[in-house]
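FORM 12-B: Structure-to-Sequence Request
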């Protein structure tokens, strides 16, 4: 088990034998509100779920005490139930559980050789998977980096965002060397999500710092610019075909357009108060698709006409759409606020939805925070950070 962020329990668990044990074991990595927010499981499923977070096989007394309490007080329930959207397509989930438990594996991306890279945010890990053999390697990053995302540069190097140590990091697979690039402004605390543009420039968001950054790998120069609206919390980042950088606002009803030459930031205000946007993607026609996380909707913005449209997500206003990607001629995203965590497909031509529960091994436990396509556009890369799984989805 990893004693990493160690938050104080956020909610009081029900009284009963084993409560103190559960609080002691589970809150070393996460708050008890994550137990309360679950859909509940059988004892067998709780056994599998906890095994993806911590190895208690060497202490059966503690293991049985934890499982007895969880199965008694958090059995299968209908709270936060998803609303599946039926449809004609079938999808295939291929899954791999990463080696180090409790790391919160996330943000898989494919490299030029077909390897799938990920980061283990809570354990300062950069990982690489060979999907053909299942072989995995974990690289230890500088302590305290708490990497939030990873991108693969044109030269094959893996770049990660040091979300807790205010750096951007580069790992060279050939030399196995790590080089960190510090933020030039002490107010720039938390590099978050990044994307390369066609010139090899790395653009990134800083959510809590309310900034957008630009890093030139050739020179190492880092430039920063503030978001126009205080508290807009820049989050997801995508680069359009014309080089324009688009950034989602996780703290306000807006999208941000960044001029790649001048770094001038223009806000596109979205219509409804309560709207927040975790992530966005761009289709082949330059249309911006975004998740309205705050109101449980899928949004579409046409930069040419300024038209904005939204569709309610199948599981409703509290479904909290999170990750998003344009794939297979459709828009895909997940509903992170319900259980199971649902993978949703929206067909723009027919304006219809279909959805599937995302598995975490034999259970459905969530949560998906970022998704991207493979380099050939034939598969979708997702994860379940709560259970340390990386997955590949094909239609």
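FORM 12-B RESPONSE
SEQUENCE OUT:
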């Amino acid at each position: 088990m990893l004693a990493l962020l160690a938050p104080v329990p956020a909610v009081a668990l029900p009284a009963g034998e084993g409560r103190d044990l559960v609080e002691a074991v589970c809150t070393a990595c996460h708050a008890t509100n994550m137990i309360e927010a679950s859909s509940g499981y059988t004892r067998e499923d709780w056994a599998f779920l906890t095994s993806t977070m911590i190895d208690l096989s060497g202490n059966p007394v503690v293991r049985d005490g934890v499982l007895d309490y969880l199965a008694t007080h958090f059995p299968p329930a209908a709270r936060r139930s998803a609303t599946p959207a039926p449809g004609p397509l079938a999808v295939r989930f291929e899954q791999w559980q990463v080696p180090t438990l409790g790391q919160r594996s996330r943000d898989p991306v494919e490299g030029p050789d077909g390897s799938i890279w990920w980061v283990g945010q809570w354990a300062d890990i950069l990982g690489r998977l060979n999907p053909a053999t299942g072989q995995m390697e974990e690289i230890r990053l500088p302590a305290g980096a708490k990497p939030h995302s990873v991108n693969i540069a044109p030269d094959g190097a893996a770049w990660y965002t040091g979300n807790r140590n205010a750096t951007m990091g580069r790992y060279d697979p050939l030399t196995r060397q790590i080089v960190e690039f510090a933020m030039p402004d002490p107010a720039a605390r938390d590099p978050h999500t990044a994307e390369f543009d066609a010139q090899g420039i790395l653009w990134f968001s800083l959510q809590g710092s309310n900034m957008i950054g630009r890093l030139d790998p050739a020179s190492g120069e880092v430039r920063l610019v503030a978001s126009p609206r205080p508290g807009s919390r820049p989050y997801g980042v995508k680069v359009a075909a014309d080089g324009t950088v688009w950034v989602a606002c996780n703290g306000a009803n807006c999208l941000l357009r960044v001029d790649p030459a001048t770094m001038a930031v223009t806000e596109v205000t979205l219509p409804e108060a309560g709207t927040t946007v975790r992530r966005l993607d761009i289709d082949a026609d330059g249309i911006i698709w975004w998740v309205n996380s705050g109101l449980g909707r899928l949004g579409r913005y046409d930069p040419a006409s300024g038209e904005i449209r939204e569709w309610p997500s199948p599981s409703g206003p509290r479904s909290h759409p999170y990750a998003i990607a344009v794939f297979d001629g459709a828009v895909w995203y997940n509903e992170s606020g319900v259980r199971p965590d649902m993978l949703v497909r929206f067909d723009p031509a027919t304006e219809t939805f279909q959805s599937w529960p995302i598995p975490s091994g034999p259970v459905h436990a969530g949560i998906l925070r970022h998704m991207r396509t493979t380099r050939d556009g034939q598969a979708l890369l997702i994860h379940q950070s709560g259970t340390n799984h990386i997955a590949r989805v094909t239609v």
